Amino acid sequence: xxxxxxxxxxxxxxxxxxxxxxxxxxxxxxxxxxxxxxxxxxxxxxxxxxxxxxxxxxxxxxxxxxxxxxxxxxxxxxxxxxxxxxxxxxxxxxxxxxxxxxxxxxxxxxxxxxxxxxxxxxxxxxxxxxxxxxxxxxxxxxxxxxxxxxxxxxxxxxxxxxxxxxxxxx
Length: 170
Description:
By secondary structure, the protein is α+β, with helices and mostly antiparallel strands. The chain has a single domain, classed as 4-Layer Sandwich (Deoxyribonuclease I, Chain A). Helix content is 11%, strand content 26%. The protein is built from 2 helices and 8 strands; from the N terminus they run βββββαβαββ. The longest helix is centred in the C-terminal third of the chain and has 11 residues. It starts with 8 loop residues before the first strand and ends in a 14-residue tail after the last strand.
């Protein structure tokens, strides 16, 4: 992953251990939010494709997690098998590489790996947030394959923003 620096954004990405172990996930925070004091936490989760960032809101530590789960779903399996205690996880987002009818009406099957993803979300009191204007999040280069939805956002279940986000195809 090539990280682009921009004066209006702070980038969080795990430095590569080697060229064969490059991180495939990053979080970009607008500098206007710097008063929330964002911090990267590999001391809690030190995994190539999972990025955990904390911030403070009214003296309370809150969390964001960004995940890239490859076609073997290794990041999801890692999260399912790893025990850690996070209170106030507000957002879990990422490319989960799961095709499922639950969030993609163009796909006709259910994937058992979705059960693991929802179990993880339940541990943190998160709910899948559906875009109010559904569009694909993965556009196929092959015209014989359908576009799909594999990028998902889970929000704190009591969030007023649940199911109110919009995805721009650009």
